[in-house]
Design goal:
Elements: H1 8-37, H2 42-50, H3 69-83, H4 88-103, H5 106-118, E1 123-126, E2 142-146, E3 149-160, E4 167-173, E5 185-191, E6 198-203, E7 214-225, H6 237-271, E8 275-276, E9 279-280, H7 285-313, H8 319-343, H9 355-367, H10 372-385
Parallel strand pairs: 1-4
Antiparallel strand pairs: 2-3, 3-7, 4-5, 6-7, 8-9
Bound molecules: flavin-adenine dinucleotide.
């Protein structure tokens, strides 16, 4: 028997096309209902488990697919074309798998990655607090060592997958006296264990990104085994989580490209059907200018996302590239989804067409994984450090 080995390009095309089929067949028909009723799409999540999508950045030895970050971005783009909120089940899950893969010790990788890769347990990221999300270094949740355990007290805000997820990457303060605030933070992997010390708070009623649970978390003398300290080292959690957030910024950039592309695709269909002044509106030059700008911005955003993804694969820190990709892609997604609504006229303002949902979903990408104001600060800081700009 001849064995046909796929090139990386063929393997990528195969998985992206499998995801595209799943989105057309299963996701697109279900999206509007989940969005309207704000119900978690468990049936779609189960199908994503079967497709292996909870293990896309998990190494094969732990049961994942070990895909490169460009393929990772393409998968997020495809799903977002059908229903952006569904990618929320995968986004922070993959930050947890990234942090465990790169910073966890062998015992932690063995204990968590195989279950995360299949989706048997679903992950999330518990970083933001009610007191603020941008100033991560200032977070106040405390983890105090007590024998072979840590005792956690504090609360987290806006945690995606809080109700439906099982395990979280928690960033908590272990050294309140650190001279630099962010050097007193440690990352833990925590699991819901039914104990009263770990409570999930209210399900937030959101503008968009509906169907995915975003909630508060409360910790009251919540005890976690000391072996859940990621990598077994205290006070290095900030860097571990920030490195994981780069993958988050690739995924958020890719989601923005997906939503913007869906908005353009819907507009392309509409302008060839809708007539005014005796011709399809596609014949009006003002409409043509809009679609040309929309398509150009989307392609530029896509290339920035791929550029960040390619550099992430090389193992470099990509604060600059992932910041640029997330900033640009999410800003153009806001612009393109607004233009799509305008192109649809009054109908764009109704729930009869999906552009209304794209318009409500777009701002999440501007805020999530660090706001775009913070992205600009990250980019500027990186530029100022460059040798070529030193005076
Ligand atoms: C739907 C949703 C899902 C989310 N999921 C998660 C999750 O799973 N896990 C998680 O940990 N977090 C999550 N977040 C939180 C998100 O990352 C934060 O909302 C975000 O980082 C901003 O924090 P904040 O809301 O506290 O705003 P703040 O930090 O209070 O900022 C308020 C405003 O001030 C601006 N600002 C702040 N500092 C500066 C500065 N130095 N210079 C200029 N402008 C500044 C900000 O850009 C913003 O416009 C989610 C948020 C949403 C809305």
């Amino acid at each position: 028997m001849t064995t046909i080995t796929k090139t990386p390009e063929e393997a990528r095309n195969q998985i992206v096309s499998m995801v595209r089929d799943f989105v057309r067949r299963e996701v697109e028909p279900a999206a509007a209902d989940h969005d309207a009723n704000d119900t978690v799409p468990y049936e779609l999540i189960d199908q994503m488990k079967e497709l292996g999508l909870f293990g896309i950045n998990v190494p094969e030895e732990y049961g994942g697919m070990g895909l490169d970050y460009t393929t990772f971005a393409m998968i997020f783009e495809e799903i977002s074309k059908g229903y952006m909120a569904l990618t929320g089940a995968l986004g922070t899950h993959h930050i947890l798998t990234y942090v465990l893969t790169h910073y966890g010790n062998q015992e932690q990788r063995d204990r968590f990655l195989p279950r995360l890769a299949t989706g048997q347990i679903r992950g999330g990221l518990a970083l933001t607090e009610p007191g603020g999300g941008s100033d991560v270094g200032a977070l106040e949740t405390r983890a105090v060592k007590d024998g072979e355990e840590y005792v956690v007290n504090g609360s987290k805000m806006f945690i995606t997958n809080a109700e439906s997820g099982d395990a979280f990457c928690l960033l908590a303060r272990t050294n309140p006296d650190a001279s630099l605030k962010h050097r007193g933070l440690s990352a833990f992997v925590i699991e819901k264990d039914g104990s009263p010390g770990f409570k999930v708070g209210r399900h937030l009623d959101k503008l968009g990104y509906r169907g995915l649970d975003t909630c508060e978390l409360f910790f009251e003398d919540f005890r976690i085994p000391a072996e859940n300290l990621i990598g077994g080292e205290e006070n290095v959690g900030f860097g571990q989580v920030m490195s994981g957030l780069e993958t988050g910024r690739i995924n958020v950039g890719a989601r923005a490209v997906g939503v913007a592309q869906a908005a353009l695709d819907a507009s392309m269909r509409y302008i060839q059907q809708r007539e005014t002044f005796g011709v399809p509106i596609s014949q009006h030059q003002a409409i043509q200018l809009k679609i040309a700008d929309m398509a150009t911005k989307i392609q530029a955003a896509r290339l920035l996302v791929y550029d960040a993804a390619t550099k992430k694969d090389s193992g470099e820190r990509i604060d600059l590239e992932s910041g640029m990709a997330k900033l640009f892609a999410s800003e153009i997604c806001g612009e393109v989804s607004m233009e799509a609504m305008r192109i649809h006229g009054g109908y764009g303002y109704t729930k009869d067409f999906p552009v209304e949902r794209y318009y409500r979903d777009a701002p999440l990408m501007i805020i999530g994984e660090g706001t775009n104001e913070i992205m600009r600060l990250v980019i500027a800081r990186q530029l100022l450090r460059r040798p070529e700009y030193q005076l």
